[in-house]
Amino acid sequence: MSFEVTLNTLAELGQSREVSKLQEAGGVEGLVKKLHTNVEQGLTDKDLAERKAVFGENVMKEPPTPGFFQLLLGALKEPILILLIICAVIEILLGIFVEKEATGWVDGVAILVAVVLVSNVTAGTDYDKARKFRALNSVKNDRKIKVKRNGKQDVISITKIVVGDIIILDTGDWVPADGLYIEGHSLAIDESSMTGESDTIKKGAKNPFLLSGTQVSEGTALMLVICVGENSEWGRTYSKLQTEDEDTPLQESLEQLAKLIGYMGMGIAVATFLAIALQYIAHNVDHWDWSLMGQNFLQFFTLSITIVVVAVPEGLPLAVTTSLTYSMKAMLKDNNLVRHLAACETMGGATNICSDKTGTLTENRMTVTNAWMSDRYFEEANLETELQSKLPAELLENFCTGVAVNSAAFLKFPEKSNQKLEFIGSKTECALLLLSSKLKYEYEKIRKEQKILHQFPFSSEKKRMSTIIQTKKGGRLHVKGASEIILQLCETYVNGDKVEQLSSSKAEELKQIIEKMASEGLRTLSLAYKDIEDVEKEYEKSPDSSLTLIGIVGIKDPLRPEVPDAIVQCKKAGIIVRMVTGDNKLTATSIPKSCGILSESNHVVLEGPDFRKLSDEELDQVLPNMRVLARSSPSDKHRLVSRLRFHREVVAVTGDGTNDAPALKVADVGFGMGIAGTEIAKEAADIIIMDDNFASIVKAVMWGRCVRGNIQKFLQFQLTVNIVALAIAFFAAATGYGEPLKPIQFLWLNLIQDTLAALALATEKPTPNLLDTPPAGRKERLITPVMWRNMVCVAVYQIAILFMILYAGDKIWGLHENVGTGHDRTASVQYTMLFNTFVLFQLFNEINCRRLDNDWNAFRGLFTNKIFCGIIVLCLALQIIFVQLGGQALATKPLDVVQWFSCIGLAASVLLVGAFIRVLIPVPQWPWLKYNTKIPFLPFVKGPEEEEALEMTEKKEKEDV
Length: 961
What we know:
Layout: H1 7-16, H2 19-24, H3 27-34, H4 48-55, H5 68-76, H6 79-97, H7 106-140, E1 144-149, E2 152-157, E3 166-169, E4 178-190, H8 192-195, E5 201-202, E6 209-210, E7 215-227, H9 233-238, H10 249-284, H11 290-311, H12 315-333, E8 336-338, H13 342-347, E9 352-355, E10 367-373, E11 376-378, H14 383-390, H15 393-405, E12 410-412, E13 422-424, H16 427-438, H17 443-449, E14 452-459, E15 464-471, E16 474-482, H18 483-489, E17 490-495, E18 498-501, H19 504-519, E19 523-532, H20 535-540, E20 547-556, H21 563-572, E21 576-580, H22 585-595, E22 604-607, H23 608-613, H24 616-622, E23 626-630, H25 634-646, E24 651-655, H26 661-666, E25 669-673, H27 679-684, E26 687-689, H28 694-734, H29 743-761, H30 785-812, H31 829-848, H32 866-885, H33 897-920, H34 944-960
Parallel strand pairs: 9-21, 9-24, 17-20, 21-23, 22-23, 24-25, 25-26
Antiparallel strand pairs: 1-2, 1-3, 3-7, 4-5, 4-6, 4-7, 8-26, 10-11, 10-20, 12-13, 14-15, 15-16, 16-19, 17-18, 19-20
Helix pairs in contact: 5-7, 6-7, 6-11, 7-12, 7-29, 10-11, 10-12, 10-28, 11-29, 12-28, 12-29, 15-16, 15-17, 19-22, 28-29, 28-30, 29-31, 29-32, 30-31, 30-33, 31-32, 31-33
């Protein structure tokens, strides 16, 4: 196929957006012909491959991911590692040219090998993280759009769009490529994301250019795609962006904590260096050897630098990244697509969930089950048969015409026996379209036959949609919307072949019918019409008055079977669930009662009009018991969320409509609906629920708590190691025992505690018992009293055992080697046992650190985490090799069976110690660690003043947005 227009021509047209150039190219109709497309039928599958080859694909080139060697060089640029490399090189040179021993260079080489190993592992984890984020972003940025393909309406990924496609745009949709307006009604586009203009732009024949990356504020339209991918407006802008993922609040806090611990480590390192140096000078003052002194002081300096490497917990940010990346990938399997990393950790502290009803608590499987037409009420199971047999054909045709023209949704009927009917668009509208099809009135045929003169899109304020179609006498206005609203606008109603006056008594009767349907949990809609002679005159004013009522329908949407259990789990977890809906009070109370949201006598149901009348002080009195907000407007939902956050609640909100975007944005965590949600709602959301199911939100809570818990587990492990390592290094130096742990051994320990432990503890999976405790909210500190108890008690026990080996190991195990002051290079069995026990302590204590509660059993659920078990086995195997085969290079001597069992027995005892302290010293909350207490010796823990100031800043930023 040869196209009569080139890629360059289309790109120039898209960039200039000049109507004159469009006319030169033949206008919209001319381009349709030149691109060999069909407005009614769309493209066929045979056209796609050639169009991709000629005009490109609708995908963006991602900025190149740093390669492994780039990341390796970045890791080696760390100042502390550079110092270690310099020291190691000097040691090698001194060992070769100055020291008399032939193996004097071994220590330097060993340190270099350790530095290379540490930097390679760091680069490897960073590379893997970047690769996983790229994969997740490709899923996150994928969207669905409605198109015409093969003569049918279909839904495809935006990446499959090609030049010449006919796109169907509806309110809330995201424009996926540059295109031209073909036809539509009341189309208005929000171009602020691309042009910076805050006002919506009306689109039509006089202004037909549609930009990719913009959003449909109102109306509907057909669009011809002219530029895709990098040739589109969004593609050209995207190619100039070189942004990096921002750190989450937890990452930032932990980085500050890491810096503080690093400074403390530097202080201990300096003190250790001074202690060793003074001890050395004191022992060698009578026989001074300048060359040997220089080499020994270099060793002391190397040890001090190594202590800093161990003390600086660079593994903290790595643990957060690993946990978040792992959780994001796992949450996708639980139907939660995380768009913003911070939402993972924030969701764990959620105290309130403000949920929609339709599709979230219910199945979103809409079916018309009840109807009132022609002064008769129908509630039979075979509704369509009863309507066909007992109602005039003219009435049914009028009803189905109103359904077809007042809807942008469509049905995707199954082509194979194993496929299901799909509802595309509003599920309520789809239920009406399905009823129309069953009544033998095909909505697609009606839409083609009827000429639409004007259309008034659905408004959440007016709660109705109106369309004027052309008739022989002028036009007919069809109105569809909330039953009680439409009923107030009607003066007559259809009764058989006649139109009768709608008396006050009849209106009251219809109100009771609406209430009856609502009390049964049905969503009610009314359809009405009005004939208009002078369409243009009526269009200038509001035509929705003096209507004739066609009928009232009741649409059933059953409760999801898993929702009641999910509500019970939320209550057990201390989370208050509130339902916010546009339905009237009667309809809105049925589902909450069924699922357990309205379960107590003091629970309150408010309607929007009453809610709006309350002052903030009056609302504060009602909020604790308010569980349902009915007939709510977007501003009501926004105010509810804002008021809850004002009272320091962590609020999650679900939403699917464009009108939900403000509430989604102001919430701590916004949940957009993946199936029923509009593009604007998804854009405003932090997490997208792929199956629109409330039970998936509960899984998100579990994952959020799991992320926070995993970080706390790693923090507990890391700080315990640091306390013990710094204590041994300093006190050994201060008491004349020099360097019981050599730099190479510290580096091996650093590899275990930073990288491998982060991978092990950050991949713990959530368990149902995470929902047995109240949420952390905004008040709980990251380092809890239970963690302080575990760290302090275990660290003291480890230090006591290691001091026993250091000061009395030769007597206990009968070791008679002359260790001297510890400055000599000769490895000893005693110091090897000290090092071995120290490392094994950490491996066993890593199991202890899985517990953040008072449960004595640290092995509970251990073997379900294969990564954790694999890392423990790997570290143990490497430690055996390290000790038995390390020799002088690794400053170890082989241990015999008795010595190994002694080390393992002493190290394993930390499991018993951990179990005993969790049982014997249960710590719910220590008074000196309460929220309203500022801790002077822990400056990294924010006090209430700092948190309040931070919250107000965040609140102001969100209000500005």
